[in-house]
Amino acid sequence: MTDSDSPAEEPTNNERPSRWRRFSTAARRAASFPLAGFDYLYRTGQAYGHFTLPILNGAFGDQLAARHDERAIWFSFRRYGTDVAVPDLHLPAAPAKTVVFLHGLMGDEMIWQSGSPDTPRYGPLLQQEAGVQCLYVRYNSGLHISENGELLNKLLTELVLAYPEATKELVLVGHSMGGLVIRSAGYYASQWTINNEQAASAQPLPAPGENAVAAPTEEPEAEEPKSETQQPETPDQAPWLSRLKSVFLLGVPNEGSFLEQNSHFTSVVLRKVNVAPTRFLSDVMNQRSNGIKDLRHAFLVAQDWQHPRADDLLPPRTLVPPLPGVQYHVLVGSLLKTAGSALDHYFGDGLVGGGSGIGRLFGDPALPPDSGIRTRIFTRQSHGGLLSNAEVYAYLREWM
Q: Which end of the chain is more exposed for a tag (fewer CB within 10 A), N or C?
């Protein structure tokens, strides 16, 4: 018999792993599985901290801020993943057009800057191709929209006072809730009377240095002449309004969100049933943040959510018209192939209805032709897709 004809040798009992050894190996693997899972979740959380923290703030940010929790997000410009004070921006005088981006609910500044290689990110591309200067704001989207609007008003005031040459032209771009924050800031800026005392007490003012703004003197005759390049500021509005040229509103629920309207209605119905389980569910639902609740009717002014009838089906709402002399670009998404149907009017891009995105004020056919409003509907486009779409970017690039 040749070697090839010999039967295969079977392992001896000494070579076989014992049942105990096989059992112990399996037990070790089972015991280490939860640890490996926790380790994976920890590493994922560390890698996507910029994603999970804004979600937490969007859901409960008002409660975090009230407790002075360290996880509460501060309203600030962002650069390289950190908060940057206005004096530390060190903006050059050129280019003179500065674009400020504001994210939506549960978002952060990274939505404008990073993504997959095949999706355009508007901030870096506009800075490279349009020759503009781009700044990114991060804010606690769980706070009232009016609170963030007032903070944006102060931040933009500080920006133009510190860098008058770099902000000769100001452009604001907001996605979803970010657009409402922009409109709210415009309201407070137009209501805010600027005088020497307020300009001197704006917080935080730049530290004395190259870009600092000198405090006005007490004696009127000592007032220095205005620079030829600096535009005169209207005394009854914030200084950044005279520099604001364009506002781009991407998927903004100008008339409120149908999702929050349904959530509020469900919570009210559960409370009306008035049994222990439904009261519990209603209480749980009402833990959502003030920012989310403001989306029900797009409350832009503090008096609206403070009104005794704020929870009514049709509560009183302050009219916030477009700012005069500003070009508005209202960009609306639609999941459907063709827009204009009742289904599109209600569902729109999946999160913002088409009718709400256009809004009464921006879609009013009685507005004069020089009102400075352009509306564009992007079909087959989701709410999040508006942030990384080649057609949307082409529109921004053309009109920027």
A: N
- Which pTM value belongs to this model? 0.78
Give the structural domain span for 179. Answer: 73-212+230-400
Q: Which long-range contacts (CB under 8 A, 24 or more apart) does 220-228 make?
A: 227/164
DSSP character string of 284-343: HHTTS-HHHHHTTTT--SHHHHHSTTTTSSS------PPPTT-EEEEEEEESSSS--SHH
Does pLDDT of 15 surpass 70?
A: no
Whether 138 is in a domain gets the answer: yes
Q: What is the phi-psi region of residue 131: left when phi exceeds 0, alpha when psi lies from -120 to 50, beta otherwise? A: left
Beta bridge partners of 173: 101, 248
Q: What are the phi and psi torsion angles at 176 (to 5°)?
A: 55, -120
**Residue 36 domain-assigned?**
no
CA distance linking residue 1 with residue 353, whole number of Å: 84
- Checking phi first, is residue 297 left (phi over 0); if not, alpha (psi -120 to 50) or beta? alpha
Q: Domain containing 120 — which CATH number?
A: 3.40.50.1820
**Residues in CB range of 328: below 8 A, 6 or more apart:** 246, 247, 249, 322, 362, 372, 373, 374
Split into its structural domains, the chain has a count of: 1
pLDDT in tens, 381-400: 999 999 999 999 999 999 98
Task: List phi, psi (to 5°) of 266.
Answer: -60, -45
**Is the alpha carbon torsion for 345, 349, 350, 352 positive or negative?**
negative
In a domain, 362, yes or no: yes
Distance of CA 164 to the CA centre of its chain: 25
